[in-house]
Design a protein that fits this description.
This protein is of the alpha/beta class. It is globular, with a radius of gyration of 14 Å. The two termini are 16 Å apart. The relative contact order is 0.28.
């Protein structure tokens, strides 16, 4: 087990299998199928992200450096949460951008049953250490524990 410490953007505690992207997450391209066509597993539709493309994101600990793309990013995250198609949590190695932060905070404040803890500033080592399938456990204080692969 290895621990990382980051800044809490949206609070919560959760444990989920990791899904890792070494490139930025294009929020709109990634969640379009989930929001437009009813894909309940939120299969990533961003063909420019080879780490995530075609993989289900709902219920996963999405580990990434940052989000990229259009100004709709915050609304897309909020809508994914409102439709219960969000990742279990978002883990950013870099500081979160204002759009992703806005969508995450609004979902945490406005939605009753759509928990999606968000931690940023986990450091450059974080996405290099974490691998798909490892268990990510998020604590209220911004501590992120990473355990070996799930079975």
């Amino acid at each position: 087990m290895k621990e990382f410490h980051g800044r809490v953007v949206a609070p919560g505690c959760v444990s989920a299998p990791a899904l890792v992207s070494h490139g930025g997450l294009n929020t709109l391209a990634s969640f379009q199928k989930a929001l437009q066509f009813g894909d309940k597993t939120a299969t990533c539709g961003d063909q420019n992200n080879p780490d995530l493309y075609g993989k289900p994101m709902a219920g996963k600990a999405l580990c990434l450096p940052q989000t990229i793309g259009s100004t709709t990013g915050g609304l897309v995250l909020y809508c994914a949460c409102s439709m219960n198609r969000q990742p279990a949590c978002l883990m950013f190695s870099n500081p979160i951008d204002s759009l992703a932060a806005a969508g995450s905070v609004l979902a945490a404040v406005w939605l009753d049953n759509a928990q999606m803890p968000v931690i940023d500033c986990l450091g450059e080592e974080f996405p290099d250490f974490v691998q798909d399938g490892m268990t990510i456990t998020v604590k209220e204080d911004g501590t992120v524990q990473v355990d070996g692969p799930t079975i």
